C-alpha cells in the first residue's frame, strides 16, 4: 500500500514544494495572475516527471532541490541589498517598484482624480 516507487511520489514532492512556497512566500506573488502561477506549477511538474522517467528519480530530485538555490539567493541576498525584507517583502512600496506593479492596489487615486475632474 505505501509504495514510493511510482511517479506519484514525485508529484507529491513537487506539490509539497509549491504548497510550502505559497504558504510562506506567496505574498511575493500576490499581484501575479493566477494562470501564471498554475502554468509555473504545471511546467515544473512536467520537467520533474520527465527527468524522473528518463534520467531517474535521483536526478529529478537533485534538480528540484537545486531549484531552491536561486530562491535562497534572491530572498537572502538580492532583496535585502535593495532594502526589501526577503521574508516579508516589506516595505511594499519598494517591492512593488522592483516588480513594476502599481502601488495603488485599491484604485483610490483614480477615483479621487475622477471626482476632482467632475
Fraction in helix: over 70%
The proportion of strand residues reads: under 5%
Parts with pLDDT < 50 across at least 5 consecutive residues: none
The biggest beta sheet is recorded as:
none
Helices and strands: which structural class?
mainly alpha
**Could you say which overall geometry the principal axes of the C-alpha atoms support?**
elongated
Radius of gyration: 19 Å
Number of strands: 0
Enumerate how many helices there are, as a single number.
Answer: 6
Question: What value does the average pLDDT take?
Answer: 87
The string of secondary-structure elements, in order, is HHHHHH
Distance between the termini: 69 Å
SSE layout and pairing:
Layout: H1 7-25, H2 34-55, H3 57-66, H4 68-81, H5 92-99, H6 108-117
Helix pairs in contact: 1-2, 2-3
Task: Describe the overall structure.
The model has no long low-confidence stretch (mean pLDDT 87). Helix 1 (7-25) packs antiparallel against helix 2 (34-55) and helix 2 (34-55) runs antiparallel to helix 3 (57-66). The chain is mainly α. It has helices at 7-25, 34-55, 57-66, 68-81, 92-99, 108-117. The protein contains six helices and no strands.
Amino acid at each position: 500500500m505505501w509504495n514510493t516507487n511510482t511517479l506519484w511520489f514525485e508529484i507529491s514532492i513537487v506539490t509539497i514544494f509549491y504548497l510550502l512556497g505559497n504558504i510562506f512566500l506567496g505574498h511575493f506573488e500576490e499581484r501575479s495572475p493566477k494562470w501564471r502561477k498554475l502554468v509555473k506549477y504545471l511546467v515544473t511538474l512536467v520537467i520533474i516527471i520527465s527527468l524522473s522517467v528518463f534520467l531517474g528519480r535521483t536526478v529529478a530530485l537533485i534538480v528540484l532541490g537545486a531549484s531552491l538555490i536561486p530562491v535562497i539567493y534572491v530572498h537572502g541576498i538580492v532583496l535585502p541589498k535593495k532594502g526589501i525584507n526577503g521574508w516579508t517583502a516589506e516595505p511594499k512600496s519598494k517591492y512593488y517598484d522592483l516588480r513594476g506593479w502599481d502601488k495603488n492596489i485599491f484604485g483610490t487615486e483614480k477615483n479621487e482624480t475622477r471626482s476632482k475632474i467632475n
